[in-house]
Amino acid sequence: MKAASKLYVFLIMLFLYLPILVLIVFSFNASNSTSVFTGFSLQWYRELFQDKETLQTLYNTLLVAVLSAVIATVLGTAAALGIVRLSKWGQKLVMNVTNLPLMNPDIVTGVSMMLLFVFIMTLFGGSDVLGFWTILIAHITFNLPYVILSVMPKLKQMDPHLVEAAQDLGCPQSKAFFKVILPSIMPGIITGFIMAFTLSIDDFVISYFVSGPSFQTLPLRIYSMTKRRVEPSINALSTLIFVAVLVLLIIINLRQSAPHKPKKGATR
Amino acid sequence: MTEKNIIDLKNIVVEYDGEQVLKGIDLSIKDGEFVTLLGPSGCGKTTTLRIVGGFVEPDSGDVFFDGKRINGLQPYKRQVSTIFQRYALFPHLNVYENIAFGLRVNKVPEKELQQRVRDAVELVGLRGFEKRKIDTLSGGQQQRVAIARSIVTRPKVLLLDEPLAALDLKLRKDMQVELKSIQQSLGITFLFVTHDQEEALSMSDTVVVMDKGVIQQIGTPQDIYNEPVNAFVADFIGESNIVDGVMLKDNLVRFAGQSIACVDKGFGKNEPVDVVIRPEDIDVVRPDESPLHGLVDSVTFKGVHYEAIVDVDGFKWMIQTTDVVRAGEEIGILLNPDDIHVMKKSEYSGKFGDYSTFSEEMDLLSDPNYQEDAEESVAAEAEE
Ligand SMILES: Nc1ncnc2c1ncn2[C@@H]1O[C@H](COP(=O)(O)OP(=O)(O)OP(=O)(O)O)[C@@H](O)[C@H]1O
Ligand SMILES: [Mg+2]
Known about the structure:
The structure holds 2 protein chains of 2 kinds. Chain A has helices at about 1-25, 45-50, 50-85, 90-105, 105-125, 130-155, 160-170, 175-200, 205-210, 220-230, 230-255. By secondary structure, chain A is mainly α.
């Protein structure tokens, strides 16, 4: 029984990670073959870092990721603070509205956003609106629910008398927000930020629809490269992205499990 | 304790959603006094405390602090500090910084701050815990941090909302003693909320018994226990048999079919009254030794004494005695004049102090809906 379940886990892991493993191995291949490993080399990484265009898209991706994550975090935290003040019923309603885009297929979100941007563009008689700004707006939009979802639980866990306790000790109400509320929900805010950042780097489908020739992100660049000829430098690039995302995910998970959850029962 | 009033509440009314939660509270608290608000759930204890703390504004009435009217004064400007029911410690700060919080926002110089925090840590016995995170502490330790965090700011009045409710029995007893000694050594006024009557009696200088937003009685623990003003207070504080009676004249009351000498006077001739007899004040004698008789219904051994439910003239009494009594036995009941306490009739008459449904009554008391039931029966009576 135990052996069987171990085997099962092993097969699943194999199934999930074998493709990535192959990718990583071949990114270090000495030749440009995708079937035979002829020896270890870093040549594809070297080549990658000499490709100006790819580096530019890497910069674009990081720029969009940082900006959209920061803006989504600020907006999302403010939204969460408002939502917890609503009645139970209002909270449910708003949370459902917030969660809907999470379940919506990316392709629907992408297409609908493109339509919206193009519609507004023609309305104001502009042209070529698709580019940096549309990507940024789209990324902020799909990041927002994740930030709200990671801040909300922290707000709900918070002792409702925290602000009163601060006031009681001589802190005016306006100051109490920065002294007490913000620090105690900070773990949730940071988790939300990292999540938003990761999702933004990761996104292909939505970016595909709202981007134009003037502004490309890394996933879009990889996609267009594969359409021509599969170059092993893509393997190197994909490996790097995988490692970066992996690191961020590990950080998120550590933050979620390690932080001191209040011991139930001790205080109630 | 001095004779100066530190807090005066004058005719405080608070309404929520059109319902009066406090119906004209008058309360004066002396500097250095230990005052306890005691009453069943929902009677308005927390609301009274929040009025003093500045978190609730009364719909009418005045709040005075040290003789000055402080209605509308922001909480952070009041010289009172609250220990919240669930402590409300700051989760992002360690023990030391929690305690230092009030001093930091008031910009106390670092050197003085360190000294004062150290003293407070010492006082509540938390030395060695300064660096600990709040959520690694036990309930009792969190309680101590909350106390230290408040007293370090040297408030004139400390408001404590059922601070011991979350602790287990043993720890609660220890903390009662400790809180009392902190109060005495610092000379701070304590306004303490509890619904544990034993806690109220053992800790307080003055007990304030509340029900349904009204103060029923204010007095020393002895007064409240020995001279309850009505059936509610008599029943809420300790066990009591409350029997219908008629005041024949000064020092003579008739109940359970007998005329019995008492020490109460000042009632109208033949005025209907409630008579309170505490179970532990009753002497059990042989039937021929007293005109008052009873038939023992049931007996429970309680360690120090026996607790008997006795049928006296159709009314069930509780009697606590160290003499051996058996179910089915006829006993004589001997009452000294000062074992009897006579009270005026009130809206609570007939609702409390009958042990005929003893076990059910215990259930009812722990049932949060019991308050509503009582209100319904008041309404029903009014209609009749
Ligand atoms: N913010 C509020 N809005 C509406 N009603 C309230 C509010 N706060 C208190 N009440 C009501 O006022 C009444 C008194 O409440 P309060 O908290 O003062 O009772 P309490 O004596 O402290 O009870 P407990 O022993 O259960 O803590 C209750 O009926 C409660 O439902
Ligand atoms: Mg309360």
